[in-house]
Write a structure and sequence with these properties.
This protein has 301 residues and is of the alpha/beta class. It folds into 3 domains: 4-64, Multidrug-efflux Transporter Regulator, Chain: A, Domain 2; 80-155, Orthogonal Bundle (Methyltransferase, Methionine Synthase (B12-binding Domains), Chain A, domain 1), CATH 1.10.1240; 165-294, Cobalamin-binding domain (Rossmann fold, 3-Layer(aba) Sandwich). Helix content is 50%, strand content 12%. The chain is built from 12 helices and 8 strands. Strands 5-4-6-7-8 form a 5-stranded parallel beta sheet, with helices on both faces. The protein has a 3-stranded antiparallel beta sheet with strand order 1-3-2. Helix 4 runs antiparallel to helix 5 (93-105). The chain binds cobalamin.
Length: 301
């Protein structure tokens, strides 16, 4: 259930007058819902979307269930990865949420937060672990905190109202949950109805999901490959199934070396979340030109 706020509460959160707020609602810039008594209400997620897209400051973030930070003026992403790594290793969950959610509030694209802050912080944690400067439990705990931050970001997104469906997963034996979860959030941020199936899913089960849902996109995050030849044959079978439903197969992840990629068939390989965002926007623009009804009918296999 979205948290619903009165126009007055949103005006206070944004540091705007009630009349400006009313004007934005009337212009359709801010979506409202009506209560049973006929009063206008605005979902907190919608107010956040508006603030991010219109580059509007949020002066009272607590009203929008966002953490308060000391550093309201700065929009800088520099230094955030280092602060995040320190906060994660110190198990300072509150500080970590504040760093990421503050960047979100200030309108930084989610793809950039993921590529330049969270992934970089985890690289630092990996290096520290390798040099025995961090314990295994600190790495595991950091992952738990990061996952909770990702779930919180997802809860702050407006529900995508799109007929473009994407589903995604990691292969059986691949336990890396951060990049696959980030992909779902990035796709949702650019208007896709993205649904993460989960981690460690056998290829046969992914094939069934594609046949059942006929998504426009399937994303596969590959950070660890337990058995290379089984992966290549399983993946290429999945690609065949995806071709029958006109599903674009998008892949990414540290385990997909250039050598392995030459033996795979796919629609796009992404090094970063930014690449995924750009590819998803391109597919969306193409789909807008050819509306779903007039797209080539998909064969059922
Ligand atoms: C956290 C972590 C784990 C955790 C993951 C927990 C979880 N819930 O996700 C656990 C404990 C499971 C783990 C296990 C292992 N790990 Co580990 N792990 C890491 C660590 C510290 C961070 C990885 C991470 O999640 N980063 C955050 C993500 C978001 O960043 P990223 O992977 O770089 O992804 C970015 C891009 O690559 C891209 N991207 C990635 N995937 C995708 C997918 C799509 C679709 C798109 C569009 C983009 C994209 O976008 C992301 C954002 O920019 C790294 C250290 C490092 N240098 O990164 C080691 C590291 C990757 N692990 C390593 C190893 C060796 C292992 C194990 C094999 C150890 C073992 N012997 O058991 C196992 C294998 C596990 C398995 N079966 O899956 C090595 C890999 C070495 C190598 N050359 O391959 C590293 C580099 C550590 C090291 N320095 O030795 N690990």
């Amino acid at each position: 259930m979205p948290q619903l706020l009165s126009p007055k509460q949103v005006a206070v959160a944004l540091g705007a007058s009630e009349s400006s707020l009313k004007r934005w609602c009337d212009q359709g810039l801010l979506a409202t819902v009506k209560t049973a008594g006929g009063h206008r209400r605005i979902a907190a997620q919608e107010a956040l979307r508006f603030a991010r897209e219109q580059n509007h400051s949020v002066v009272a973030p607590l009203i929008l269930a966002m953490p308060a930070t000391d550093d309201r003026k700065s929009r800088r992403i520099e230094g955030c990865a280092e602060r995040l790594a320190t906060g994660l290793l110190a198990n300072n969950e509150q500080a970590c949420h504040a760093i990421v959610l503050d960047l979100f509030l200030k309108g930084q694209p989610l793809s950039q937060i993921f590529d330049e802050v969270i992934a970089v912080a985890f690289r630092t944690i990996g290096e520290k672990w390798e040099c025995h400067d961090a314990e295994v439990y600190q790495e595991r705990c950091s992952c738990q905190i990061a996952l909770r931050i990702l779930h919180e970001l997802r809860s702050k997104q407006t529900e995508p109202n799109s007929d473009l469906v994407a589903i995604g997963a990691t292969i059986e034996g691949d336990q890396y949950s951060l990049p696959v979860t980030m992909s779902e959030i990035v796709l949702r941020s650019v208007g896709w109805s993205a649904q993460l199936l989960g981690s460690s899913i056998p290829f046969d089960s992914m094939t069934k999901a594609i046949q059942r849902h006929k998504p426009e996109m399937f994303w596969l995050s590959v950070s660890f490959i337990p058995d290379e030849s089984a992966f290549i044959s399983g993946f290429n079978r999945l690609f065949e199934a995806a071709s029958k439903t006109n599903t674009a197969m998008v892949v990414g992840g540290r385990a997909l070396t250039a050598e392995i990629r030459t033996r795979l068939r796919y629609s796009a390989f992404c090094d970063t979340m930014r690449h995924l965002e750009d590819f998803a926007k391109t597919l969306r623009r193409q789909a807008e030109v050819v509306p779903k009804k007039s797209r080539k009918p998909r064969k059922n296999s």
